[in-house]
Amino acid sequence: MSADPTGARDEGFDDFVDAVAEGEGYYLECDSGHGSVPPRRVCPDCGGSDLTETPLPDAGELRTYTVTHVATPSFSEDTPYVTAIASFGPVRITGQLREADPEELERGMPVELTTARSATTDRRLLAFDPR
Ligand SMILES: [Zn+2]
Predict the structure, then answer these.
(1) What per-residue confidence (pLDDT) applies to 42?
(2) Cα 122–87–72 angle (5° rounding)?
(3) What pLDDT does residue 68 have?
(4) What's the per-residue H, E or C state across 100-127?
């Protein structure tokens, strides 16, 4: 797993978060047009290894979300928080949805991909802001 919403880190994922933080988020596209979230060496759909970094669309679409009121200790100061999955072109990204009233969320609403820091651990996370 790469985009782990719990904040687990790895080298390739950090590179991806850096790119998103600079407004240069990208996904990996294989020769067959499948998209995947970095880091990857092969396409998870077809195994193709010729992956091209392709800019993410500016706006994603909220697909699904869950509101967490009681978190594990590593997220205790962030509650309540919304974990969401949004699609950006062919890829789906998991992140924390900020600046949003959980009562007013709707599937299909447009979101922007950004980064945030956990209030509990100070780790960087992928995050979404409503557009
Ligand atoms: Zn593929």
Answers:
(1) 95
(2) 35
(3) 82
(4) CCHHHCCCCCEEEEEEEECCCCCCEEEE
**Which pLDDT score, from 0 to 100, does residue 63 have?**
97
Q: How far is the CA of 16 from the centre of ligand 1 (A)?
A: 20
- Residues listed for the chain: 131
CA–CA dist 51, 112 (Å, integer) = 24
Under 8 Å CB-to-CB from 68, ≥6 apart: which residues? 75, 79, 80, 81, 82, 83
Alpha carbon of 70 to ligand 1 centroid (Å): 38
Segments of the chain scoring below 70 in pLDDT: 1-11
Domain residue spans in the chain? 11-130
CA of 75 to the centre of ligand 1 (A): 35
Name the pTM for this structure.
0.81
3-state SS assignment for residue 79: coil
